[in-house]
TrEMBL record:
Domain called Glycosyltransferase 2-like: residue spans: 6-129
Keyword S-adenosyl-L-methionine recorded: no
Name listed for the protein in its UniProt record: Glycosyltransferase involved in cell wall bisynthesis
Xref: PANTHER family: GLYCOSYLTRANSFERASE, GLYCOSYLTRANSFERASE 2-LIKE DOMAIN-CONTAINING PROTEIN
InterPro entries from the UniProt entry: Glyco_trans_2-like, Glycosyltransf_2, Nucleotide-diphossugar_trans
Transmembrane residue ranges: none
Keyword Transferase applies: yes
Protein keywords: Transferase
Gene Ontology molecular functions: transferase activity
Organism name: Algoriphagus zhangzhouensis
Amino acid sequence: MDMKVSAIVPVFNAIETLERAVDSLLIQPEISEVILIDDGSRDGSLELCQKLAQKNSIICVFQHPNGENKGAPASRNLGLKKSNYPWIQFMDADDELLAGKIGSQLQKASPDVPFIVGKFDSEGKEIAIFKDVWAGLLATRLGNTSSNLWNSHWVQKVGGWDESLLNVQEYHLMFELLKINEDVKFSDPVLVHKFPQKNSITNSKNNLLKKRDTYFQFRNKVREFLKENGKYTFIRKHYYTVCTGKMLKYHRPDFKVPLNKFYFLVYNRLKLS
């Protein structure tokens, strides 16, 4: 099997972190091309992309028509169209890979594997992952955009990234993949550093209520799929209920949110005892 990897990096006003991210890609010998997609930057990031491409022949730079800002999912989809290799390292421009990240994950790779879940830390704290893929999906503990390694064939099979989403984008993609192929693999080392940025899409207060609504809608979609397919096991019910109940403490959306209130109440009392 061809084990070459394409790295795809959406770039939006990332001049302070981009070079670190790209350097961390270049130390991965399995990466054969680094595709930088400028997403309408206004801080000099485009010029930095072009400078990096001049220094290294495996780096190429693309933009949306007329230099538009179309968002990270659209930028990843554009990169996917430009890519040439079967495995994809989607990379956020403020993250960093450690040496051996790609190599350790490719040991788990095969054509039938849709993606490989990798561990990461955020501000020095390791983020847990769950080996039950559906529980991990419900709890958003199944890696993230940069820590996972993605099979291009399967990502394209489900239509790529949903460009309408504000957040939870990689979890929607994993949901679509898992609906048709649950043969996910896991790599153990923590080989990705995440550096949360205050003005990132995830952390920004812009559209905050809509982004919170997205979590409820996403988890309910997964719940409904599992119920319809006889896969809504106790552990998956548990994580749906706990994660949803915790969010309802600080945000109540305008739509109805299914919740086993009695189970959540008992869980809270046992946790506090």
